[in-house]
Amino acid sequence: MPYVANTDQNRKEMLEKIGVGSFEELLRDIPPELLLKKPLNLPSALSELEVTNLMRELSEQNKSSLEYANFSGAGSYDHFIPAVVDQIISRSEFYTAYTPYQAEASQGTLQSIYEFQSLICQLTGMELANASLYDGGSALGEACLLAHYQTERNRILVPGNLHPFYKRVLKTYVSGQELRLIEVAHNEGQIRASSVKEKLDNKSAAVVIQNPNFFGIIEEEIEEIEKLTHSSGALLIMVCDPISLGILKTPGEYNADIVVGEGQSLGNRMSFGGPYLGYFACKKEYLRRLPGRLIGATLDNRGQKGYVMTLQTREQHIRREKATSNICTNQGLMALAATVYLSLLGKQGIRQVAELCLQKSHYAAEKIESETGFKRKFKAPFFKEFVIEGPVAPKKVVKAGLKQKLLAGVDLSQFKIGLDQGLLVAVTEKRSRTEIDQFALFLQKLVQPEVKSVSESRKEVKV
Amino acid sequence: MLVPDTLKYTKEHEWVKSESNIATIGITDYAQGELGDVVFVEMPKLGAKVTQMQPFGVIEAVKAVSELFSPVSGEVTETNSKLETEAGIINKDPYGEGWIIKVKISNQTEIDNLLTADKYKELLNK
User: Fold this and answer.
1) What is the CATH number of domain B8-108?
2) Using one digit for the tens of pLDDT, what is the confidence trace for A78-90?
3) Where is A184: in which H helix or E strand?
4) Within a domain: residue A38?
5) What is this model's ipTM?
6) Domain range enclosing A89
7) Residue A318: its chain B contacts at CB < 8 A?
8) H or E element, residue A425
9) Is B60 on the interface with A (CB under 8 A)?
10) Do A73 and A186 fall into the same domain?
11) Nearest neighbour of A318 by CB, restricted to B40, B42, B65
């Protein structure tokens, strides 16, 4: 709504309509001593032209990732979004739709959510997926609560290489519950089965494994961890980047009980951190404890296929305080974008995206290691993201990058996880070879600013 | 509506049949009718302790869900495994095939706190 009329005449008409003589009369219930009796400390009103100019100036201070070669990730990734995604999600039938309580009026929305659930099941190799949750972190929180209720145990083993933001969300989720988070330290970036074994006991409700983990590393002892977890009676919760599932073994194949993650990578923009969507998939045996919306397919009284919200007795509008979760909405539009993205790419397409990420990030890592003073912090295999350390502090690298239209990565010192020299670098399929080469050159120059050949200076101009 | 004389009842609409120290527990004909088609029953684990008039499980119909209250205190010795695949038998035969759990009674005097068939009928007629 770019323009809302609000003239004296309008106000008078509105007051008359509701039978009130003046605006002050509306404030009658507020004790007079609490009312502000002087004008608000605000600048005087601007004309429409002045406001338009001001807003433009302010918005120009924002920088779009489109103008930068983006090597930042850490949970929010710059993947390519085909035009069809926006075309479909901006249709008003989808754009304005909210909770589809009325099945007879919401078949399109319900079908799209059903397809989202089916695609997530295929991608993760799990039997069941819900209609989505708020984001990856809250999906993990819900997974831990499910494990707690299911096992009636109260310890959650959380890996030291879990995304620090997810850990924070998890802390919030379990506060007030009788749940304790037990950290399993990583060893050179990976979780060892032996470290899990040390912390695991008959009070453990779940073992959480992020794969690829926060450092972008692929975990290599999940099979052993799975055996240990299940033999102790705990559930295995995996947190996965959905793009990585294009080439990595699925959580279903690892016999995980619950799989959650951030679905932003699937056709959604980075948008300053949200709105995103959490996906949540699990084994069928946890159906009754599943949080959030669930759409089912059925036949109507004429035998035609139809879609409905199902198993609603889990949800708070029916079960009140005993509901499986206090989330009874889904990130409908974001889930739709993910659905369109996944259907468009298909099995082959998602595999190709994953392969490109793998190849390009490895090319970048080799280039950086061989041509700059920066080295990879961990030697373990990685997917599309890796940690580098070098003679220049990560904060300085990030700052210098901005001047050269580069988002050089995420400075790990801000997370206080003992990697204060670490820079987390992500390379998606969108990064061109030229961009990667220029990135390496940029790092090289940061390390040795004085060594500049004529040809390199020329390259620098292009950056 | 069936209210067999041989059983004892709770005001939450569970029935109990006690034979020596074992109590068989289910929901009444009235309760199954009010709930509608039962689709799922969440039962306690074997060996779990239950307390008189405290929830021991959950019964779920298509559009309603309700807690199950234990008429007696004791230890769960058996659960009706048929309900896991066919919860609807509660609608068909609430006092027979549709029983829910069996409990080893820990305090016989608690039975006196329960309603007789006549008292339960009175409650339903209110």
Assistant:
1) 2.40.50.100
2) 999 999 999 999 9
3) strand A180-184
4) no
5) 0.70
6) 83-340
7) 63-65
8) strand A423-426
9) yes
10) no
11) B65
